[in-house]
Amino acid sequence: MLSVRALLAPVPHSGAIFAILAALVFACLWLAARRLRFEDAITLALPLGLIASAHGYVYDAVVLIPLFVSVASLRTWTGRLALFGLTPAPYLLLLGDAPVKVWAGAGTVVAGVVFAALQICRDRAEAAPAWSLKLTPDSVPRVSPAT
Questions:
Q1: What is the pLDDT along the chain (147 residues), one digit of tens a residue?
Q2: CA 29 from centroid of its chain's CA atoms
Q3: Which end of the chain is more exposed for a tag (fewer CB within 10 A), N or C?
Q4: Is 16 exposed, middle or buried (0-12, 13-18, 19+ CB in 10 A)?
């Protein structure tokens, strides 16, 4: 699995630690989404949801593609680390039987998602909330009556 839960599997009380870290990931996403455009927020939400999920398969990593495309042109060290973590290279480690290889592969992907999320939040955050998280009658455009 490509998640924080897979990384915490050998740790005692991993279920409780995973629940806390997953809640932290979702809280960070909620805070970041309030400062990003909708497209950027969705680009972050899919991979962050993957690494905070309780169970997933390698083919669920298809949700990493928009994030990979977003960080492909970055020239910073966090952007390059994220790019490596989002390439297919870490998945080769997941093919091995050794727990260390599997842990290293999942850790590389999780680190890539985290670094990419940090880079996008740093580069694309806006001063005011980019979109309203709640719908009110005033936030929805009026529809003209049909004639």
A1: 777 777 777 788 878 888 888 888 888 888 887 788 888 888 888 888 888 887 777 777 778 778 877 777 777 777 777 777 777 777 777 776 777 777 777 788 888 888 888 888 887 776 555 555 566 666 556 666 665
A2: 8
A3: C
A4: exposed
Alpha carbon distance 143, 37 (integer Å): 24
Domains identified in the chain, total number: 1
Yes or no: say if 126 and 37 are a contact pair by the CB < 8 Å rule: yes
Placement of tokens 């039987």 in the chain: 97
Domain of 21 in residue numbering reads as 4-124
Inside any domain, residue 67? yes
User: pTM of the prediction?
Assistant: 0.69
Q: How many helices (H) and strands (E) does the chain have?
A: 7, 0
